Amino acid sequence: MTSEKADYIVAGGLVVRGSGITREDVLISGETIAEIGPDIAPDRASRVVDASGAYVLPGVVDAHNHPENADRIETFSLSAAFGGITTVVPFVRSRRAAGEDDTTIDAVNRFIEEANETSYLDYGAHAILLAADDVEEQVPGLIDMGVISFKMFMTYPSRGMMMPDDRMLRAMELASRDGGIAMVHAENGYCIDHLVDQFTAEGKTSAEYFAQSQPRLLEIEAINRAATYATVADCPLYIVHLSAREVLDVLTRFKGDGLRLFGETCPQYLDLTNQKMLDHGALAKIGPPLRERPDNEAMWRGLASGLIDTIGSDFCGFRADQKFTGGQSAGDEDSVDGSADSSIFEASFGGNWAEQMLCVAFEEGVNRGRVTLPRLVQVMCENPAKIFGLYPQKGSLTAGSDADLVIFDPSVSHTLSAEAQHCNADFTMFEGKQVLGKPVFTMQRGQIVIQDGEMKRERGQAKFYPGNRDEAAYAPSGHQLVGV
Ligand SMILES: [Zn+2]
Fold first, then answer.
1. How far is the CA of 39 from the centre of ligand 1 (A)?
2. Residue-level pLDDT at 62
3. Which position among 199, 218, 269, 293 has the lowest Cβ density within 10 Å, counted as fewest Cβ atoms?
4. For residues 176 and 229, what is the distance between their CA atoms, to the nearest angstrom?
5. Ligand 1 geometric centre to CA of 64 (Å)
6. Distance between CA 269 and CA 219 in Å, rounded?
7. Measured distance between the N- and C-terminal CA atoms of the chain, rounded to whole angstroms
8. What is the pLDDT of residues 392-416, one digit of tens each?
């Protein structure tokens, strides 16, 4: 009997799935996982990758990122790959807020073209719907292209980004009709703008006023409102970057009422507090703002209990000088220098959190006993893939799935720093953080991506993965539908 050899065996590791941890080998043939089981004979493959003493995880699926500033998809995906991420789902938006004649469909086509040439990792896309976008036309057209998730901002009215409530409700109806899913940045934009104007008029523009201008009440109110509209429209709803501890009560109520409601938090809301804003000003400016220690703890409780379903990075790569100048891209807006008398309200929103995301979540979650490693795999790999229709090709270690995996060595101690990261952003709010555990090997569709601390894959091998709307929004692993 002749049998063709497989390409790789990833041998000797502890395979982690949402359902548990097992000692198994992974046999890879071409782009897919051919078999997983204990003691696969080494001579069944041409090459053996030794994973002994380490965990084998599905590649992380980062479903929240904005590669549109100092880091576009090329350097963002490079940096993400070093962090154990293998699939990215960026947000794409039209140029309508800048007054240009453009559509979201055009923007997605441009993005796919750029990513096919330059991305190091497989990718999907979410569409951002702006007030000026024609949702009647764009939503069905985007769903046909495999872009099944639509993000709307409930804030930033003065930046032309806020979706008015009636348009949001209509977009949810259209998404629901065609099998899509709505996503919201939930903060009350009118109140934030009002408070920012008030603080500015009083000359209160230093870092200490930032969190006060975007209070937790405004996040809680907006989540209630978005979940109410989603209930009326019968539309699945994904709430990005949860940050305030009170949101758990809102999730409990609406999930308990049967809304297909999914919550995401981010490494920064799991580990950092407003102290970073007080210490670093503009560099720590994100929306929603960094909050307090009890909020970090509540985000962990939400992840552990199943109320919060995913962790995403919200990567938005700016260099430090761009943060201070407040430009969405270099040099395109009012210039503000980085000195103490610059207004915090003029600085850019966003941080570069992708490369450190898995290490921070493992250190703060698993090493500190707040969540199990299988739960971490649910919220970082399985659930983002399930919610956005990429499962089981992505986010899964199963025969037939794409051979996307990470070898994570839990014994490597290292220090997070801007120096060590691979994006163009030149700072990190995790600077100096000591962590135990590191992704040391990454593979995508049977190709080695990261090995021996180096990128081994050429750009331009990545593929666009359309969201499968028949699979989208089905119950994620550990998802809690009934209140705690
Ligand atoms: Zn974001």
1. 43
2. 98
3. 293
4. 12
5. 6
6. 14
7. 57
8. 999 999 999 999 999 999 999 999 9
∠ CA 108-128-291, rounded to 5°: 135
Domains of the chain (ranges, CATH numbers):
59-376 (3.20.20.140)
What single-letter amino acid sits at 445?
R
- For residue 315, the CA-to-ligand 1 centroid distance in Å is 7
Tell me 245's DSSP state: T
pTM greater than the 0.85 cutoff:
yes
Question: Mean pLDDT across the chain, nearest whole number?
Answer: 94
Residue ranges with CB less than 5 Å from ion ligand 1: 314
Task: Quickly list H helices, 119-245.
Answer: 135-144, 165-177, 189-201, 210-213, 216-233
Distance of CA 385 from the midpoint of ligand 1 (Å): 18
pLDDT digit string, tens, across residues 92-109: 999 988 888 899 999 999
How far CA 31 is from CA of 6, 7, 444, 445, in Å, comes to 11, 9, 8, 4
Place of tokens 């990758």: 49
Give the pLDDT confidence of 321-354 residue by residue, as tens digits: 999 876 544 333 344 444 456 899 999 999 999 9
Residue ranges with strand state E in 225-328: 237-239, 261-265, 310-311
Antiparallel, parallel or unpaired: β 261-265 and 237-239: parallel
Q: Could you tell me how many helices (H) and strands (E) the chain has, helices first?
A: 15, 20
Q: How far apart are CA 285 and CA 347, in angstroms?
A: 7
Q: Are 187 and 288 in contact (CB under 8 A)?
A: yes
Give distance in angstroms: CA of 376 to centre of ligand 1.
21
**Span from the CA of 45 to the centroid of ligand 1 (angstroms):** 42
Q: How far is it between the farthest Cα atoms of the chain?
A: 83
The encoded tokens of residue 82 equal 């070093």
Sequence-separated (6 or more) residues with CB below 8 Å from residue 364: 270, 271, 300, 370
Residue with tokens 């929240």: 64
Bridge-based pairing state of the strands 434-444 and 405-415: antiparallel
* Whether the Cβ atoms of residue 281 and residue 208 lie closer than 8 Å to each other: no
Q: Ligand 1 center to residue 38 CA distance, Å? A: 41
Q: How far is the CA of 187 from the centre of ligand 1 (A)?
A: 12
Cα distances from 251 to residues 180, 238, 248, 459, in angstroms, run 20, 11, 5, 40
Q: Positive or negative, the Cα torsion across 225, 231, 232, 237? A: positive
Based on C-alpha coordinates, what's the Rg of the chain? Answer: 22
Q: Which two three-digit tokens encode residue 416?
A: 């997070």
* For helices 135-144 and 104-118, angle between their N-to-C axes, nearest 10 degrees: 30
Report helix, strand and coil shares of the chain as percent, to nearest 5: 35, 25, 40
